[in-house]
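Our preliminary data section would be incomplete without showing what the modeling component actually yields. Below, a chain of 290 amino acids is followed by its predicted structure, encoded as tokens that our downstream tools consume directly.
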Amino acid sequence: MTAPISSMIVPALDNAVKSLLMRAGVENPDGDAREILCAVLECDRTQLILREEDVPEQLCEKAIAMARRRVSGEPIQYILGSWSFMGRDYTVGEGVLIPRDDTEVVVTEALKLCESIPHPVIVDLCAGSGIIAITLAKELPSATVYAVEKSDIAFSYLTENIALNQAKVNAIHADLQNCVNDFEDGSLDMIVSNPPYIRSSEIAELQQEVQYEPRLALDGGEDGYDFYKMMISLWTPKLKKGGAIAFEIGEGQFDTIADMLKTAGYTAVSGTPDIQNITRAITAKKEHAL
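Predicted structure:
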């Protein structure tokens, strides 16, 4: 039987949460403890450091309960219910891919490719929580942005995050294979995507936290390339001459996807590394008319 939790001062609660996470071998106990306390106490990290007052028993219990969920392997992002990406907050939870810093590489490259286009028309395939589409829409106010998402759960997060960030994004609840004909040939300036790219056989080997994320957002098929093949074959005709793609890719996938793009008539194929020097984004241009 678990002993009742009494009220504690903020530093003591911080230590209790941190100790619980450390004993369980959680990878980043300091950071996760701060995230939990900031959420429970509704403050930022600077305010947390300065607080010394007693925390009511109910809030202490809430913080410890959140820490126990983290100990069980649940991602901190799901426990908090929201996460930040490139300076904006997004609602997340079970059933939608967690925003990751890796994706900043793709967004940054997409912004560069669109900077000289007065009114770019962009589609984000496998949009998930909407972090790519929403960031592009906010950073490119003159753009027309579409976000395609198949999963019912992920689509609900997508629409919620569009409203939360007051973004001009057209959400489309569909499989990317089924809605392609809703777009005219030669109508798009850019196709951007963070598709599933993990090999089916490797899903079971992923970290415990990743196992909580939807398989639909992770599984790229037997070789990991199913979605790249579909996007390149089905969606290339939708690009204008000079239109571009920007895809997030997995470690070691650049050469194979680059060959796919070159075979499909793309030029200026380029890879961009993330902070760990892993090629995380691939970009290319369609130089020929339809």
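The chain has two domains: 8-72, 94-286. Residues 106 and 227 are 16 Å apart (CA to CA). Preliminary results of this kind motivate Aim 1 of the renewal.
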